[in-house]
Amino acid sequence: MKSQNERKRTFLMIAVPILLLFFMFNTLPLLRGVMYSFTNFRGYGKFDWVGWRNYIDLFTDSRVGNSYWFTFKLALVATILINILSLIMALALNAKIRFKSFLRGMYFIPNILGALVVGYIFSYIFTYILPAITHAASMLADKNWAWVAIVIVCAWQSIAMNTLIYISGLQTVPEDVYEAASLDGATGWNKFRYITFPLIMPFFTINMVLCMKNNLMVFDQIMALTKGGPAQSTESISFLIYNNGMSGGQFGFQSANAVVFFIVIVIISVLQLRFLNKKEEQL
Amino acid sequence: MENLTVKEKFNWPVTILLLLGLFTVLFPLYMTVIIAFKQPSEMTNDVIGLLSFPKAWSFDNFREAMRVTDFWRSLFNSFLITAVTMIVSIAIHSLMGYAVARNMNTSKFYRFSYFYVVSGMFVPFAILMMPLVKQTAQLHIDNMFGVIVLYVVFYMPMNVLLYAGYLKNIPVALEEAAHVDGASTWTTYWKIIFPLMWPMHATVAVLTALGTWNDVMTPLVIMSGSGVNTLPLAQLNFQTQFGTNYNLAFASYLLALLPMLIFYLVAQKQIINGVINGAVK
Questions:
Q1: B127-169, pLDDT tens digit by residue?
Q2: B134 vs A contacts (CB less than 8 Å)
Q3: Chain A residue with minimal CA distance to B4?
Q4: If DSSP states are collapsed to H, E and C, what string results for B82-134?
Q5: Shortest Cα distance, chain A CAs vs residue B41, angstroms
Q6: A247 found inside a domain
Q7: Does A246 fall in a domain?
Q8: Residues of B with CB below 8 A from A17's CB?
Q9: C-beta atoms of A113 and B261 within 8 A
Q10: Cβ contacts (< 8 Å) between B131 and chain A: which residues?
Q11: Which chain A residue has its CA at the smallest distance from B152's CA?
């Protein structure tokens, strides 16, 4: 009995301070963020309560609207592109190829590099190398094309990670499943469509959710490549909150933006998990 | 396995396609190295001029980049922040995972604690950013210490999830045996449980280190104006000073990428295993 009490006490002495730390630097700032969203705080000086006005203004602010449009367009296109390419890469790297571990190691390199510096390097490619080849203007300077450049840079880095997850998925598929399928006359695409893909569905779920979440929070690439330009066409939600909230005097207003962004991320993650889990069960 | 592969026929078309595809990975790195070694006078406007070898392999650009960006200090700061975050995370998050995993089934408090911490994964930094700037300033920790504290908190949801999951596979009987011998829970943890979790420690170390080393946003908002830089932050802050001297800029980029590339070369297997474990579990 005495040792039971000692065990309980030890666990409490571990958990309570850690929970307090977590509350201090995660929950408390979250609550303060919600609080600021109901004020006209500029980041300094005095502020007043403004009720729901920031939230109402959010829906009529064209800059905020544009940033949501840009971020979702980017996240959706990048997530689909990344997952298709990663699946192809994983199938190739899981085939009976020569130099397997060398190739896998090389293709993973982009993932370990810092997104900001990678962004600067690609910025040079888009500004000088590509125009020198195509004799066209830089993609980054064109407000219809700048977002594509950001998709490319995001994809270049994320494919490595997603490929790796798909490879570990493919390795869970036992060899005799393929043999049985071959005996039944299944080949190529059919084998993938009806056997491989259903079996690696859980890995597809992980990749879609992780990838979508990461892409929705895109920030470093924007800082390195466009700083939101040209003509505010590549302002991601995170970038806008940082830029206008920290130095633009819109602390309160961008807090409301951040609260909405938070809710959106939670809804999307939950929906994605629900939807993809259902598909998994059906198969 | 080795014997099998000798007999197997390799799929050469796919191998060759993959080798050719490496161009997409290596080209940006090749370009970085080439430009970093060149002089501004060697930079012409045509593709061949941009991508040809430099006339001489001189390290002058690197020396200058190190001076301009205060490279060694930034490197030291990055290293310090990453190392301390990693060690503290392993210690604290594994303890929390332990407390939660061992009591979740019997105690509502621990079950709630588990879901409370893990759901923190959905909170984007964007919403915490502005309040945290105020808060760290009020507490006078708008410095490297504050950044470390924040990292330890940010990585807690994922790491507690990983540790708690791993501990489900470690039988409680082990601890009970130690208990009978009179050891306290605290001693039992460090003597028996902690060493058993090495595979998970490696995963947590890799994921936490990769994330903190390359992170820009946290030090950017917390330490802005303090003049203290991390390696990536220095690239951002000195961007304007490089001006149009791309050779200097690229020497600096290469210096910023090198530590991680070298680390990857040395610990490739551990890094890849760590990343897989973290994502799949």
A1: 999 999 999 999 999 999 999 999 999 999 999 999 999 998 8
A2: 32
A3: A96
A4: HHHHHHHHHHHHHHHHHHHHHHCCCCHHHHHHHHHHHHHHHCCHHHHHHHHHH
A5: 16
A6: yes
A7: yes
A8: none
A9: yes
A10: 28-30, 32-33, 36, 255
A11: A22
B20, B33, B130, B269, best to mutate vs chain A, most A CBs in 10 Å: B130
Predicted ipTM of the assembly: 0.90
The answer to the question of residue A218 being in a domain is yes
The domain locations on chain B are: 2-58, 71-280
Predicted local distance difference test score (pLDDT) of residue A280: 60
Nearest to B131 by CA among A156, A74, A39, A143: A39
Between A15, A33, A107, which is nearest B127 by CB? A33
Gyration radius of chain A over CA positions: 24
**Contacts of B167 by beta carbon, 8 Å cutoff, 6+ apart:** B97, B98, B101, B102, B193, B197
Give contacts of A14 with chain B, Cβ < 8 Å: 95-96, 98-99
Q: Which residues of B touch A168 (CB under 8 A)?
A: 276, 280
Mean pLDDT of B47-59: 83
Q: What local confidence, expressed as pLDDT, does residue A283 receive?
A: 45
CB contacts of B21 in chain A (<8 Å) are 107
Percent of chain B with pLDDT over 90: 64
| Mean pLDDT rounded to a whole number for chain B | 90
Report d(CA B74, CA B66) in Å as an integer: 10
* Closest residue on chain B to A115 (Cα): B214
Cross-chain Cβ contact B153/A21 below 8 Å: yes
- Tally the domains of chain A: 1
Per-residue confidence (pLDDT) for residue B1, from 0 to 100: 44
What's B71-280's CATH class?
Answer: mainly alpha
Q: Report residues of chain A scoring pLDDT below 50.
A: 283
The domain containing residue A159 runs over which residues? 54-282
Give the pLDDT confidence of B205-224 residue by residue, as tens digits: 999 999 999 999 999 999 98
User: What share of chain B in percent tops pLDDT 70?
Assistant: 97
Q: In chain A, what percentage of residues exceed pLDDT 70?
A: 97
User: Does the beta-carbon distance from A7 to B264 stay under 8 Å?
Assistant: no
CA distance B266 to A282: 44
The pLDDT value recorded for residue A92 is 93
- Residue A17 inside a domain? The answer is no
List, for residues A73-127, the tens digit of each pLDDT value: 999 999 999 999 999 999 999 988 999 999 999 999 999 999 999 999 999 999 9
What's the rounded Cα separation, in Å, for the pair A166 and A159? 10
Query: Domain containing A255 — which CATH number?
Result: 1.10.3720.10
3-state helix, strand, coil in chain B (%, to 5): 80, 0, 20
Q: Do the beta carbons of residue A177 and residue A107 sit within 8 Å? A: no
CB-CB under 8 Å, A132 with B47: yes
